[in-house]
Every structure is written in structure tokens, then in C-alpha cells.
Structures
1.
Amino acid sequence: MKNKIFLVSAAAALFLVSCAVNNGVSSEQIGLRKANLNNENSVVLSDINYSGLGAGESALLERSFENAPPLIPHNLDGMLPITKESNSCLTCHDKAIAQDVGAIAAPASHYYDFWKNKPTGDVISEIRYNCTQCHVAQSDAKPLVGNTFKAEFKNETLKSKSNLLDVMNEGVK
């Protein structure tokens, strides 16, 4: 009986000591920027340069992975913000205009309403209207962590084209 009381007492003491020693993780220890999350004054932003090329002057960029939103290869000066009254992206990338101006047209998935499960015709879907929600301008930002990911594409055309609407239900029964 004395042994049981001793073991329970020792376990309780060990538990209490270990709880007292663990102070948790500070906000400076988590995240990629290693700064206090409650105070933005100590955050040092990296010097990032975006492409200075205008629309139509830049080269098409390979996607990061199949059906990834492509990066925007040109500068966005004067094109933002996107509002419900104005979306400068669509002045070139709307499917009715793109070919005439030499731009890449928004893919079929942008002209499809996934909530109603039907095409939107010639009007871009409301959920795809805010382009910069998925697409970002290319910059010379250095990676914050190492990356050895190598994309594998089903075919070469998918490096610069989306087939998302065609494969959306792949593997779903």
C-alpha cells in the first residue's frame, strides 16, 4: 500500500513539475517571419520587385502545377483595385476579346457557376470575378522555405492551359 501511495505521489509531483516547466510557444517562435504577432512594428518586409513589363510585353509563365492559377506576368499599375463596377483584367482576358488583343482568354471554368452547376454563357462567373483572389503578379521574391517540388503535367499543353472544368469530377462517383 505504501508503494502505491509513493508511486501516485511521485507521478503527481512529476506531472506538476513538467507542467510548470513548459511555458508554451511564444508568438516569435511560430510562423515564417519570426516576429511578435501582436505587434507589426518589428516586421521587416522583404524588398520585392514586380515585373515592370506592361500587358502584352511579357512572356507566358509555366504554371506551378497542373490547373494552378497562372501568375500574372505583367505589372498591374492602374489595374487595381478590382471592384464590382470595374475589372481591368477583363478588358483583355474576357473570352470575347482575348484573341483579338493577343491575350490568353479566361478558361471555361471561369464561365461556369459551380453553385448552380451550369454555364454562365458569355458572362464571367461571380465567384471568378475577383482575379487577384487566385492570380498574383510575378515577383523576384525569394522562397521563405526550401522547395523541391517538381510538377508533373499529364501533357505539355497543361503547362500553360487549364482543363479544370473537364477534370473537376475526375475520380468522383
2.
Amino acid sequence: VVGKAIDSGLIALGTHQLREHTGGSPHPVDDHPYGGGPGMVMRPEPVYAAVEALSAPGRHDRRVLLTPQGRRFDQAAARRLASLGSVLVLCGRYEGVDERIRPLFDEELSIGDYVLSGGEPAAVVLVDAIARLVPGVLGSPESLAQETFGEDLLEYPHFTRPETFRDQSVPGVLLSGDHAKIARWRRERAEERTR
């Protein structure tokens, strides 16, 4: 979906290497934490240099830092970010980021309470969730309206052919042709799943 959206010009996606903004430092992007401890910390200089180089006036509507302590990324955040013209996302790495870079960002987001090897998988989650909300990316606008979290509800159960499979039958209401009853059944099932 994202690849087709890029190919058709509906969205643009750029990736940038912080190493290009190090000025030849012997510790290009990371260094040992003050006070000791395991791991490496992302240095502030290349982050500031990259964000400043990529942030011509009016270029990005929002700057997002992906961090474990950020606000949980959800469908409402995806809708909000999709409504913007441009979003700059920094993928965290190593043990973390130097605290002094936080003022560069408008918000911090997290995709969940677990540890990843880097922020790139989290960035992929953001890109996918945001891109599919851009008008024209999905084939049918109804896909957005009726999907999971489209109305802050989990999606209702889906069934396809055959009508009966291993003694499990499709609910009769879905075979009835009564669109009002089908819509009511779907809404009730979505509400049950969301509880």
C-alpha cells in the first residue's frame, strides 16, 4: 500500500542518515553515557544538525521523536498526523537519545511497551498507519470508515465463502440482504469486541 502510494505520488517518503551530519567526529552518532552504564547514547550534535538542515521554514508541520516514554501512538494520532502536510520522525537508537534534543520535537510517541533494536520498526508502523489515511491511498473510502478503529471500535467479524465450513455457518443476517439489519448486526458485534 505504501509503495503504491509513493509510486503514484500520493505521498513522499525520505530517509536521512545522521552520519551525514557529524562533521567528521570520531564518534559519529553515539557516545558513552555520562555517569557510566551500558550502551551508547545518541549525540545531540548530529541530531540538531540533521533536523536544522531538514527543517527549512514551513517544510515540516510536525517533528516527532519516537521514544519508549512517548505518548502511545493510536488511530487518533495517525489521523492527526495524516492531516498534516509533512512530518519529520526521528528513530531512536542505542541506549537512548541525549536529553538535550527533546526541545527540537513537538511530541514524543511510542508504539508500545516493549523493546525494539531500533526506532526503524516503529517508524514503519507510523508511516503505514498515516499513509493509508491519506485520501486516494486506499481503493475505497469506505475501507477507512468501516475498518478497525475507524469509529474507535474494533472491527466486526468477517465471513466469506463457503457458507458453511466445518460445521460453522455464516450468520443468517449476513445472508438476508437486509442492509439495515446487517449494519445493526455489524455495529453490535464491533461494540462487543471493543468492550
